[in-house]
Design brief:
Helix content: 10-25%
Number of helices: 8
Structural class: alpha/beta
CATH superfamily of the largest domain: Spore Coat Polysaccharide Biosynthesis Protein SpsA, Chain A
CATH architecture of the largest domain: Alpha-Beta Complex
CATH class of the largest domain: Alpha Beta
Largest sheet: 9 strands, mixed
Distance between the termini: 54 Å
CATH topology of the largest domain: Spore Coat Polysaccharide Biosynthesis Protein SpsA, Chain A
Length: 355
């Protein structure tokens, strides 16, 4: 089997972070979400992976490279515009050929691997398999309705009045019959080729399409709250280790990971938490469910339930920073100079909470 990861899209719900960065490269527990999709495919034994890229293609290529770090071969497939998931599949035909393949959305996080699911599909006579998850807000997703015997009856893309709570989570498996489907369907009212329409075409034409209902957690990391939830859940799963320096005046409480080159000076880190490479935590408190990425500085400050991206500085903040997603190269600090005032330079669609 081959793997196909979709990594286009503009990430509008994560702005302003995604004005200057691909949403799939925002780290969760100090690993970009896209890397987690590649990890899942490699763990399932797939070593030929195509990545569909859009406006952020250069950044994706620079981060992922040729796949050597995963012992895989990466092929990049440009998509001229976000014209739908089925369109992304359609333009990948030269890469996939007649092989079976697993399709992943590059901004999703799912509990556990999909090794067994992929291996079972690879050796079966099924034409397609889709992963479903019960959700509280199905109108925001593609939704599946099942027959009493558990087979698929109907798929609908973001219905206004959902007739089921089973959402498509962004993991699919197909054989070569998907090419007939993507050629046969027409763009939806959104002007996109919908993957739900392609799968529905397979169902209506008698192909063997099977659902798999995932019982663990699944998060579409499209918004700040979703990113923080994914960060929290993955941090709880990590096996902690200390590869950096922790001085004798500091405390590590619970599951705490200190990556290579990091320094913890006269500080308390309460896990689950992860401190990235070459990051310095000085006279500070880092609370649970916090990820500080590489080459950051946190000094005389408190941070909890947050994600801080690389090369950022948080210095002398009088109140605890929490429930926050801090971008790259950000500086948050107070000035010892008077008069005291808030001095801000914020990008479009920023959000700041002040006490």
């Amino acid at each position: 089997m081959k793997g196909l990861v979709l990594s286009g899209g503009k990430g509008t719900r994560l702005r302003p972070i995604t004005y200057t960065s691909a949403k799939q490269l925002v780290p969760v527990a100090n690993k970009p979400v896209l890397f987690r999709a590649i990890d899942a495919l490699r763990e399932a034994g797939i070593d030929e992976i195509g990545i569909v890229v859009g406006d952020t293609a250069a950044e994706i290529r620079n981060a992922v490279g040729d796949g050597r770090r995963w012992n895989a071969k990466i092929t990049y497939i440009p998509q001229e515009a976000p014209l739908g998931l089925a369109h992304a599949v359609k333009i990948s035909r030269d890469f996939i050929g007649d092989d079976k393949f697993a399709l992943f959305l590059g901004d999703n996080c799912i509990e556990g691997g999909v090794n067994n699911l992929i291996s079972d599909f690879a050796s079966s006579d099924r034409n397609a398999q889709i992963v479903l998850k019960k959700v509280a807000n199905p109108q925001q997703y593609g939704v599946a309705e099942l027959h009493p015997d558990g087979t698929i009856e109907r798929l609908t893309e973001k219905p206004r009045q959902p007739r089921s709570d089973l959402a498509l989570v962004g993991i699919y498996m197909f054989d070569q019959h998907i090419w007939e489907a993507v050629e046969a369907i027409k763009p939806s009212w959104r002007g996109e080729l919908e993957i739900t329409d392609a799968i529905q075409w397979l169902v209506e034409h008698g192909y063997r399409v099977y659902p798999y209902i995932h019982e663990g957690w699944w998060i579409d990391t499209g918004k700040r709250a979703d990113m923080l939830d994914a960060n929290r859940l993955i941090l709880e799963e990590l096996t902690p280790y200390v590869a950096g320096f922790v001085d004798r005046d500091s405390q590590l409480v619970g599951k705490v990971t200190i990556e290579k080159g990091a320094e913890i000076i006269n500080s308390v880190i309460r896990g689950p938490a992860i401190i990235g490479e070459d990051t310095r935590i000085i006279n500070s408190y880092i609370g649970p469910f916090t990820s500080i990425y590489h080459h950051c500085v946190v000094e005389e400050s408190e941070v909890e339930h947050s994600i801080v991206l690389e090369n950022s500085e948080i210095v002398r903040i009088p109140h605890r920073l929490e429930d926050s997603l801090i971008g790259r190269n950000v500086k948050i600090h107070t000035s010892p100079m008077k008069p005291r005032a808030y001095r801000l330079m914020l990008g479009d669609n920023s959000e700041v909470g002040l006490l």
